[in-house]
Amino acid sequence: MRRRAALAGFAALPTALLAACAADSPPEGGLAAQPVHVVFFEDDSVAVRGAALAVIQDAAAIAQRYPAAPVRVLGFVAPDPVHAPLGALSRARAEHVAAELERFGIPRPRIQVAGRGAAAFADIPLESRRVEIHIGPA
Q1: Contact between 116 and 76 (Cβ < 8 Å)
Q2: pLDDT in tens, 107-136
Q3: Can you state the angle between helices 86-103 and 51-65, rounded to 10 degrees?
Q4: Partner of 57 at 20 to 30 A CA spacing, among 40, 96, 105, 118?
């Protein structure tokens, strides 16, 4: 019973983390000062909703302010030796975020998508299940 209560508390964690990643307005200082936007996912999911959409929309708004800058979308998954298609899931998450960016007005040729596979975070596994949106050169 205690475990369920603890897990219920973690269920709200993605929303809180997603909200923290969305910037109300981009920092001053040009393209180099732009933050990396991070979208978190549930286990084995590519679904994007709520606060995650707000993060993507914010990234799209910044990308529109810099029309010559490339937009890189990098997908990651939590390492799991039981599930082999980790690369496919990380790529699917990145593709889904790229489709949302396109829906928010970013031309698809500007968007570079890569599935980076497993990324371990020992303390917070949710950190591994993410897509990063980078605006500007690498």
Answers
A1: yes
A2: 999 999 988 776 766 555 666 788 999 999
A3: 60
A4: 118
